[in-house]
Amino acid sequence: MTQQTLIPLTENWHAIQLASGSQVLPSALKVADLVCLPAQVPGTIAGALRAAGQFAYDKDNFDEVDVWYFCDLDLPDNAACLHFAGLATHAEVYWNDSLVLRSENMFIAHRLDLAVHRISGKGRLSMRFLALNAQLAQRRPRPRWKTRLVEQQQLRWLRTSLLGRMPGWSPPVAPVGPYRPVVLELQSPVQIIDQQLTSRLDGEDGMLEIELTAHSLQAISSCFIKIGEQTAALKWQSLGENCYRILGLCRLPKVKKWWPHTHGEATLYALELQIQTADHSQVLKLGRTGFRQIRVDQRDGDFHLHVNDVSVFCRGACWTPVDVISLQNQASDLRQMLGLARDAGMNMLRVVGTMVYETAAFYQFCDELGILVWQDCMFANMDYPVNDAEFAASITLEVQQFLQRTQASPCIAVVCGNSEVEQQAAMLGQPAEWWRNDFFAQTLPALCLQMRPDVQYWPSSPSGGVMPFQLDSGVAHYFGVGAYLRPLEDARRSDVRFTSECLGFSNMPDDDLLDSMLENGETVGPHPVWKRGIPRDNGSSWDFEDVRDHYMAGLYQVDPAGLRHADQQRYLALARTASGEVMARTMAEWRRAGSSCHGALIWLWRDLRPGAGWGVLDALGKPKAAYYYLKRAMAPLTVFMIDEGLNGLALHVVNDTAQALEAELELGLYRHGTNRIAHGRISVRVAAHTAISVRDYVLLPHFMDTTYAYRFGPAGHDVAVVQLYRAGSAQVLASDFHFPGGQQFTQAADLGLQAHCVMSEEGNLVLHLSTQKMAQAVAIQIPGWLPDDNYFHLAPASEKQVILRATGGTQIQTGQVQALNAQGTIRVQIPH
């Protein structure tokens, strides 16, 4: 299908909400007597209410009502069919009063042949989304086990997202409506009905296997595929009734490989199909693809991903939709979000089974940016009735369609059957034979082998050990550091191999988000408005703010509850940095040379509603402090220190890039955050795609109790600083800090911290910072500007430049800089 034959139907839609079952035919709708909203398509009823200024969290229950969408159309004579890419959830489609389509799976796309259904000319296209609660009330067999994730266990029968239906996890905004495009297809001389594309590596060559089914009004006389700059002839054969099968196996010698951005270039090749008939030539764009090899080493309980035979430490986050209310991804917003992930050194994102399959643009941008995707199928925690024939057919088609529409995307590395189904059954004491069913064990891997043989299949996240949630085998969900309040040393003790979900904290947003969400009298703390934005496990007596405060108490030696009452600004400052410190230190432990861990995906990318949610970005898409801590810990080129107790400090240099690193490593020890008492600097070489470890004593002139483990008298220093330089350069590539006595520094009256801004030729702000004493967790707050680094420590007698880019919001003329161990703030004037 060419772009010229596809017309998205986005205009002149309206939506109404009615009592469940009150109207069954479009003609019975007395539109003039009803509250009718202009509606965006694609979109949801929640999105329509928000656009009309009528949306509020916790106000509406969209599962209790029928929702109607309708628009009037004047179809052209060459209209061929209508495409419905996603209808959430049980939907009926009408042309005037004729029912032309039923859909009971929001993850399935539908194609409606207009001639078959006698649809033409002028008429009204209506979509009725039936109240989900009415569907849930129908009697069905009970599950073998129940999950606390949802309140209504019969959701297992209905193919819909769990977003909005998970108490304590997501806001109660159930997706209802045509959340994916409605498109009119016009007749075309040549139409692609079905396609199968497979790209792979064969040694240094790229192989593209193509099989298409096409409808052509005239006999095909020639057919070619253009792959980048190379063109190859294809074979074709007639299937009768103007249908043709087009086949080809194309080889690209010494192809440029596709890599995750941390390890190389994400090279893509455009695909164009050129078909010639007797008097017509047509070019059909088939998207872009890349050539790479994915394999997973599972020896000795490992889950170790290799791309193009190179070991990759996969790090990133569990993805959340850009807009949970409308489920829409505007291209600019999506590009910005994925750009932030890439800039943070994230090379993998997980699309979780509790949410939705993402848009085509998501996978295309991940292809372009070099971000791997761990793709869950949309199943989570429940005992799904896969032995029911109708249900099984529906979910099989669902997965087939997803695999087909993303078959050219090299970003997809892992397809996973579900999220926590095996773990849920096992934790509830069910027998092992109930943990995994035939759909996840046989049907799905067979579909992947058939349609995406270039990806790895994994049955459930987590799984792979004697128990599915075993941490030292297969894939784990690790919340030892986090929800289970384990000490930071537990990250090593647990011997994690790969964690596809980890480190969930209530991450505190910046003041501007707090100011926008809290009205007069509403405060951070136990206030009910604030607590609605704090995630919790359904039925638990604690929430994830309690988890964050537990680690804050240990890091800074404070009483969080007492501090919140006595000095809320100080409480907020410590809360913002506490979770970031813990995440960064845990990520460093897993990335160190010699670690058993080969991947860690943070729970969660972005908050689902305003507040201190799991996200490392707030609900408006602004990075929180935790984002910046992870950005430094996840960088392709980085250095960090690990406290090895009586063995001192281990200095780890990581080089994920494709080039060897010639560098210099410098270690300094400081007393009272000012006086340097020891110093050393050595040259190091780190080969491409490797990491090295250097002991502190290699750099120091004599023995120093760097970790304060021997404790022969008072500590000789309170700060250790390691810095990495490229050989021959004075610019710091990366740095890390260690505090042997803890991070509870007294706030000083004057650190000698200075800051001023200049405007660059590119229109960005450059913030120049310098300090005399060690400055802890320097926070930059300049509304309207996004810093490329924030919440960082500054070594004594050092300087740093931070680039700030305009965010497109309201920009002010002054901002502020504050260190955690300073009493006051520094005002920064923004140049005109």
Can I get a quick summary?
With 832 residues, this protein is an alpha+beta fold. It has five domains: 3-185, Galactose-binding domain-like (Jelly Rolls, Sandwich), CATH 2.60.120; 189-289, Immunoglobulins (Immunoglobulin-like); 294-634, Glycosidases (TIM Barrel), CATH 3.20.20; 637-738, Sandwich (Immunoglobulin-like); 754-829, Sandwich (Immunoglobulin-like), CATH 2.60.40.
Sum up the structure in keywords.
globular; Jelly Rolls; 832 residues; Immunoglobulin-like; TIM Barrel; single chain; 5 domains; 44 strands
Structural commentary:
- The chain is of the alpha+beta class and 832 residues long.
- It is built from 14 helices and 44 strands.
- The strands form ten sheets. It has an eight-stranded parallel β-sheet with strand order 26-25-24-23-22-29-28-27, with helices on one face.
- The longest helix has 24 residues.
- The mean pLDDT is 95.
Major β-sheet, in short? 8 strands, parallel
CATH hierarchy: architecture of the largest domain = Alpha-Beta Barrel
Give the termini distance in whole angstroms.
50 Å
**Strand order of the main beta sheet, please?**
26-25-24-23-22-29-28-27
How big a fraction of the residues is strand? 25-35%
Any idea of the CATH class of the largest domain? Alpha Beta
Large-scale geometry: globular
The CATH superfamily of the largest domain is Glycosidases
SS field, number of helical segments: 14
CATH topology of the largest domain: TIM Barrel
Please give the radius of gyration in angstroms: 28 Å
Which class best fits the helix and strand makeup? alpha+beta
Question: What is the percent of helical residues?
Answer: 10-25%
Low-pLDDT stretches are: none
Taken together, the total number of domains comes to 5
Q: How many β-strand stretches? A: 44
